[in-house]
Amino acid sequence: MRNGIFVFLINLCLASCGGNEVEKSEVSDSFTVSLDTVMVDAGEEFIYLQEDLWLSKLNPDRRYLVNFNREDAIAEWIDLDELKLKKVLQFDKDGPNSIPQYTSGFLINEDENILFWNYRFYKIFDQNGQLVRDLELEKIASDLLSGSEIYPNQFFLDPENSSRTIGLFIKWEESKYLMIDFDLESGEFREIDLPQLEKIKEYKVDIVYDGNMAGSYGPGVYSSRVGSKIFLSTNTYNEVQVFDLETDSITVKTWDTPLLGAKRAYLPPSQVDGQTGEIEEIVRNAESDITYGPIFWSPDEEKFYRFSHKNYFGEEKTEYGRYIPTRADVYLSVFSKDLTLIKEALIPELIQEPKRHFMKDGQIWIFENIEDEVGFVRLSVE
Question: If we measure between CA atoms, which residue out of 120, 193, 128, 125 comes closest to residue 150?
Fold first, then answer.
């Protein structure tokens, strides 16, 4: 997940509160860690790395990592078993099988088809780039989705009901988050309010130029689905919210641990003048504090994992004036399938914020750009 300064707050997903479990834990331990690094053979191709595999998804059996190049509308299938670039698919930019430039996101469903989404665009394609189905969500919820006031952030398919699709959205003007539950068969939908995320607004900074809103810096929220549950979490609170697709209920699991606390301590001002340079100090202060990462699932072990980190900075800046981290403290938390915290510790072998990462075959795979080629550091934990 990226913290950053955006013209729009794009990297936000959503959550809500139905029940609340608070776990004040004294869990703190050490892990036995082993590391190895593997490289992907791209042959004569060049894998798109400008976004550090940010827009990439595992296929259902976790053999392939599909990386999407939004600039050129190209999908790249990386075979994680053979460590080779297996296939490159160019999607159309015009015509009946086209996808929009800079699509917001995608997912790979159980039959290996790909759902892409953007404003007023919710379409499924096969792996030859041919249109399979237009969900037409902008027509089902026309009052909400016919314009660009509501941003489609993430989508989930109900594994037990092929006509049910759930989307996570943000209303820009209100900075309000909601879910929309679509019934594709009946053409009906219902809104699900997410009041639990209102509290993350205290970490949001509006950037103003000459009295006009120019952008925002703020909290990030992650989402994933495992089985019949959708898991939502934020980078500023030590908690996970669980939406149960079977019961339509939401519960919240919260932790307060010696290493990671309950939430980020640093609270920024709500507004800054973008011409003063103050925002760069705010970003450094925020990222020097704790940043909670997304939870990710290990199907082999039936456990959840999560990285968190704190960055350290010197005085060196990028060409855009942003402070460059010199190193990071990286922590790993391990949870049972019901989100009971099992173990949590500093991982001294990792000295920078983990980039795109996921679980495969009982190992944590962490993307590393090695001389403009795809490498993975594989972390085994005992």
Answer: 120
Across the beta sheet with 212-217, the strand order is 5-6, 212-217, 205-209, 271-273
User: For 95, phi and psi rounded to 5 degrees?
Assistant: 95, -175
Nearest to 332, CA basis, from 362, 300, 304, 360: 304
The DSSP bridge partners found for residue 288 are none
Phi, psi at 288, each rounded to 5°: -80, -20
Element spanning 286, H or E: helix 278-288
pLDDT digits (tens, 9 = 90+) for 121-169: 999 999 999 999 999 999 999 999 999 999 999 999 999 999 999 999 9
C-alpha span between 334 and 66 (Å, rounded): 26
Which one, of 223, 221, 205, lies nearest residue 269 by Cα?
Answer: 205
d(CA 68, CA 54): 9
| Token pair 């999607």 in the structure block, residue | 91
Query: Could you say which DSSP state residue 60 is in?
Result: T
Q: What is the pTM of this model?
A: 0.90
